[in-house]
Request: fold
Amino acid sequence: MCDDGAHPGDRSGFAAGASGEHDSGPEPAVGSDFINEVPSLKLLTSESLHEDVETWSCDDVSTWLNSIGMSRYCDLLCDVHRIDGHALLCLHEKDLKDPPLSLRVLGDIKRLNKAIQSLRQQQLRLMSSYTPGSRHRSMSSGDEQDGTTYSRHISSTHMPSSLHTHQKRRETALDRTSPRKVLVTSLYVWFVFLATSFTMTIVHFRVPDMATYRPLPDIALDNIPHIPWAFRLSEAIGMFFSLVFLITVLFHKHRILIICRLNILLGTVFLLRCCTMFVTSLSVPGRHLDCQPGNIKSFEQIFWRSVEITSGFGMSLTGVHTCGDYMFSGHTVVLTMLNLAITEYTPKRLRVFHVCTWVLNIFGIFFILAAHEHYSIDVVVAFVITSRLFLYYHALASTRALRAGDNARLREWFPMFTYVEEHWSGDRVPNIYSNPIEDLRTYIRYRFGKQVKAAMHAKKS
Reply:
């Protein structure tokens, strides 16, 4: 039996409270002890994640579950049942036990329920701090602190408009990325593609003479025999990636932002490729290539040759043959960029598929080398630049703190980034999918409704 006295093994706070010798200071809210006892939870609820739990996305809930040692339930709660911050706060122990969740480990049920209770208390204290002159009753340990109680409590509480509308702004922020931005970024990337093709045409006329300049020593090309069909197979992998990405974008709820991001990233990388190709001309890497230097012809001929390369996407499968565009590999850029986009904007639970895309990406790069179309340094530089730029862009777009200060320098150095991401809330894009036809109908009704309202307002005035 347990008596009312303090045992030596008890926590000091509990012992003091049990014996009545606790300080006369303010009683801590229920749940604060749990947050303090779990450092990772305290850190995430105050720094890494937004303090307003109602605004958490499914990915934020997954991060929180990892922080409290419940990562085994991330797929069930976040991917299968799409539990976001609001739904998490409404969960109670019965929900965890009963279908469709049906958790079977009693210890995990109790620990997870206690952690959710702590989040509810934190959310109630946050609402109290935003409501001037209001004093919410702290729920004692004897209260039924379940999702129903929480729902009743917040429904009777006057919350500030910022908390009421934050989640709505979060869900609709990406919808403000208008199709006009798709047009602007598409013009940007196609202009860069045309400029790249123009540079490739000029570089072709400057390619070093194969009779005078032998291929440079290369550890991969010197040890891998030439495979004639390898380059076409690499392009076939790129076409498969393109098909998967198009299907993903078509059904993704935030398809407009994804298209804009990919346009910016591809345009920026290929703009850098224009510079590297133009400043240095390397010797032809393979003897099988028919690359002979020539004289620069008229501007009109160069322009139409550039259009031909652009319309054929620079692929040998479409009959395009170029020489001299070695530093760095455009095929590696496209393969790596599409692979990263597929893994970023498809559900995390498709781990096997993501592994397969990475394997195909690696094999695609290997086939480029096996075809002796590029030097090893070409593909290495292309992979490093593409992957780093993709990761840095998404880290900047997903980190609110990096964008909270003075944006003048950000606008100067990354004008396209600022233009596209100006309405994005600064969180990771949730992988939610929808019917594109219904979304188009909704957008048309929305635009038509705005025009009708504007006409009616003009008529009244």
